[in-house]
Amino acid sequence: MRMHYEFGCRQLNQHGEELCGDSVVFNVQPGFLTLVLADGLGHGVKANILATLTSKIASRMVAEGLPVRVVVETMSETLPVCAVRNLAYSTFTVAKFFPGGRTNVMEFDNPHLFVLRDRKIRPVRYRDRMIQNRRIHDAKLKLGLGDWLVMISDGVINAGIGAASDLGWGWEAIAAYLESHAHPELSAQEVADDLADKVMKLYEGKPGDDVSIAVIKVRRRRFTTIFTGPPLRPEDDAAVVARFMAGRGAHACCGGSTANILARTLDRAHEVDLSTGSAEIPPVGRIEGIDLVTEGVLTLAHTLENLRRGVTAKEIQFKVDGASALTRLLLGSDEVSFLVGRALNPAHQNPNLPRDLGLKSHITNEIKLNLEKLGKIVFVEYF
Questions:
Q1: E strands within the chain?
Q2: Per-residue pLDDT tens for 209-248?
Q3: What is the four-CA torsion angle of 109, 110, 116, 119, rounded to 10 degrees?
Q4: How would you label 347-369 residue by residue, b for 16+ Cβ within 10 Å and e otherwise?
Q5: Which CATH architecture best describes the domain 3-219?
Q6: Chain region(s) in the chain for CATH 3.60.40.10
Q7: Structure pTM?
Q8: What angle do CA 95, 98, 104 make, to 5 degrees?
Q9: pLDDT tens for each residue of 296-320
């Protein structure tokens, strides 16, 4: 079992503003992850710039392993302080997540984060220290499977002031809401969206402050192994199939020739479901024990286009074509391993075909790059 930190985020601009005065940065690094939520002073463009600078600097410095004092001192010396109000340029919350659940948290003037376990808010033991005349709260946490960590800006705390509530929503009420709404079957993004929708209702559709919600859900890592293209040497077929079947998580096969190799090696039937085809995408197939069997280059090319356009799993949840099914599988995975055969298919060299149909290796590499932009870990092996 490998632990995974699933990330979800939702932001709302203050009513009448084109830019959000908060900034949220989530970075995946080798061996750890960092999450920063910064709230810039004021609102609009100026607040957005201040929050963005704060989040970028803090994220980079924490990722490089610099201690709390150095991070805070650097930001204090680098970024401005409001000369009129004598207030900090930006408040922030920083969390650094390590494998196994160990998490370090640092807060400056932001609302305390929420930690949920078994549908109950768990207390966080903070240590307070003064750095550059600023009170910093830091804590060390041990997260486990099923836990949630939620960061918010004060726009969430103040939700409803002047509208649904005189005093705002408040930390305790938000905690109670999370206890009843952070269901185990929901994703981090769904919890962030639900909390933001509640905030919007409290503001009666016109947020009086910028709102940021960042959610981490701790769950088991999801794996997918994909086999596409015949190996360069036919004598390697059996070894690559064995490697594919030994892969972790869901198994997908992309390509007619690849599917035939798989079915022949495993001595299983390969059937085609014509009802799943369309004018643009060939139908999917069926092989016992394989989660998804699709055509090759055309399906991969349409899958790449889905990723480039930022299609969500929810948008295509009811589509039955191979590209939609493969897109859903990839979006729902945290770690993807491609086994790519290098044997050349003469049909793919037709000059009348779109340029993206050149080689499976080219499309696979582009899919890899797009998945990595989404924070996923991708491995590609060639045979």
A1: 3-12, 22-29, 32-40, 90-97, 102-108, 114-117, 120-121, 127-131, 134-142, 148-152, 211-220, 223-228, 250-254, 270-272, 285-287, 292-294, 335-340, 377-382
A2: 999 999 999 999 999 999 999 999 999 999 999 999 999 9
A3: 120
A4: eeeeeeeeebbebbbbbbbbbbe
A5: 4-Layer Sandwich (3.60)
A6: 3-219
A7: 0.83
A8: 35
A9: 999 999 999 999 999 999 899 999 9
